[in-house]
Amino acid sequence: MAQAWKCSGLRWSADGPVLLWDGGRRSALTWGKRVAFGVAEGGGRTCVGARGHPCPVRAAVSGRSTGARCEECARLDRAHSVAADTLADDPRPYRVYLAWFGPGMVKVGITAEERGSARLLEQGAVCFSWLGTGPLMAARRTEELLRAALGVPDRIPYAEKRAVRARLPGSAAERAAEVTELHGRAVALGGWPESLAPAPCRPVDHVDTFGLTDLPAAVGEVAELAAGGMVSGRLVAAAGPDLHLATGSGGAVVLDTRLITGWELVPAEGEQVTVPVRQFKASPSVQSGLF
Question: Are 106 and 84 in contact (CB under 8 A)?
Fold first, then answer.
């Protein structure tokens, strides 16, 4: 029987995306590399635990869960996150950012200054700019100000991000236009916390980092893994947790790597996807005539 491995997720390094494995092994991902694995026969997906600790009951979790945690471990993990607003006394400086994922899709968010742009890479932001830096609660109030005054959301669903990656504007200037315009409106608002230092608008473009130039349109996305199934393809792009894989004859498929945690994985041969795939709807086109 082939040795089984457990993936602990995808991380972005200075050199690009890297898959991490339980035990410390790392697999660097480069464009054109074959990504292939099978799901162990007869197995199931188990909770990955919380805050570096294993799930005490090794609870079973849904194959469609992107968190791969049972309810109790998910609650413990979120209780110590910035998003849960339970770390109000965190002394670290935080940055507020504007992130763009495609036409009409701009969000506001915060990240610890020490993390640099890692958070933006993890979310698959195609373009971003810093908005300001300050204490955690000042950054949080600024985020809320933009949501209330300008209607800027604090999250964009991944399904929407995936749908436009192959249809992005061709130039960096075009991709930065919405961030630049919104940055100007944001800094003109009254009510900014005094402890938050505004940052100039300096858009950073990730199209080359993600490999999105001339990206082929994907036909669908992996919906979930299943025991005995296989995922195999050639890596053509990666953005956030997503890998865009060119398969043998079925077109490109998007794999959200958060779906593979909690499974026992084994080597696989061939170049196909035999797990459930959710097909993308065709983009509507303009009809040029009646016939």
Answer: no
